[in-house]
Design goal:
Elements: H1 5-11, H2 15-30, H3 34-46, H4 51-61, H5 67-92, H6 97-100, H7 102-107, H8 125-138, H9 142-161, H10 167-196, H11 209-212
Amino acid sequence: MNLMIFPLLLTSFGPVDAWDVGILGWVQEYLANPFFDRVMPVLSFLADKGWFMIVCAVVLMLFPKTRKMGFTMGLALAMGLLLVNGMLKPLVARTRPYVLYKELYDSGALRLLVHTETDGSFPSGHTLASFEAACGVFLWNKKWGAGALVLAFLIGFSRIYVCVHYVTDVLAAAVLGCCFALLAKFIVESLYKLAARPGGKKELPLPEEADQTEK
């Protein structure tokens, strides 16, 4: 197969677009309400450029008890920025629903509740950052992580509700976000173990042993 065909296959979602738009229409028809109209744009804003997740990661890095968690979040966010926003999104270049199905937005069947964006639709960057951060927390602290995952789910749903992403954009981003967090945790643990070896340079501050078993 000609390698030039591969990017074309990625950008041609075909029937998946129609299925995705059907889900968007169902959400607007059966779940739309004034309360969601106010809350969902706010939830969406929390992950705009990943600012909230970045702030949380930096704050966690400041304290020894949560430093590993902060490093995991920060590394996962960095990987997502480089590999997804920098490479995958431009490669896939999936057209946003409000561009491809403009007539549905003009008719009011789908409502654009936030500002438009110029990058590709697949996968959802907001959802990616949310799950990278939430899973990064969950891997070190189950109690905090459960709440973070609920927030990540709500942010992912908000991107569907405000009609800027397809459902498959959000699902793919959630999976990728968790994968990046798992990889980031492995890297952070490996670096800490390397730094803790006898004669090694202990450049990374090690938290108390009790913190490593914290649920």
